[in-house]
Design goal:
Layout: E1 3-4, E2 8-12, H1 18-25, H2 31-34, H3 42-51, H4 56-59, E3 62-68, E4 74-84, E5 89-96, H5 105-120, E6 125-131, H6 135-143, E7 147-159, E8 162-172
Parallel strand pairs: 5-6
Antiparallel strand pairs: 1-2, 2-3, 3-4, 4-5, 6-8, 7-8
Helix pairs in contact: 1-3
Length: about 180
């Protein structure tokens, strides 16, 4: 395991994850939060896993799998995106499968991710963009210390003629 917490661990993607990724990435109900509009093939996901050099400095992104310690079951993902070395910041997104929500796993995963960003990558800040209607995510990020610093008006298109505002949340490393 890459980073181990009390109840969950974060680790690199493996070939065994392709079927889970196929299921999660092709769940049309999740597309509105991942900005996805087309399905992914197993071949594309295999290439994604194969070509992920796990060098966030080269790829400017990184996906880690969230694993439940007690069962070894992979229950979600943490995504780092728009990694910016010059300005010492990265975006973060999280997905926990619905069968494992409400157990504090998202919170623990986010805290482990923040610790990785601040102590290993030595970043100044971590940010996220959350749709205004996504109350559970807003609560999660605010509980982890993120602060609402701006609103992106009509930021995400949710249907043919409907756009939703999104909050820009930041967590600044004061050390």
């Amino acid at each position: 395991m890459f980073v181990k917490g009390e109840h969950i661990s974060l680790r690199a993607m493996e070939h065994d994850d392709i079927e889970l990724l196929y299921e999660w990435e092709n769940n049309i109900e999740l597309w509105h939060v991942s900005n996805t509009q087309t399905p992914f093939s197993r071949h594309v996901l295999k290439e994604f896993v194969d070509n992920s050099q796990y060098d966030i400095y080269t790829n400017k992104q990184l996906r880690l799998m969230v694993v439940e310690n007690s069962t070894g079951q992979t229950i979600g993902t943490i995504d780092f995106f728009e990694f910016d070395v010059q300005h010492a910041r990265v975006g973060v997104g999280i997905y926990i499968h619905q069968n494992y929500t409400g157990k504090g796993y998202a919170y623990e995963s986010l805290l482990l991710a923040i610790n990785y960003c601040f102590t290993i990558l030595h970043l100044k800040q971590v940010y996220s963009i959350v749709n205004s209607s996504n109350a559970p995510s807003m609560k999660l990020f605010e509980k982890a210390g993120f602060e609402k610093t701006g609103i992106k008006k009509a930021w995400n298109k949710t249907s043919l003629n409907h756009f939703e505002d999104a909050w820009f949340l930041q967590l600044i490393n004061d050390n």
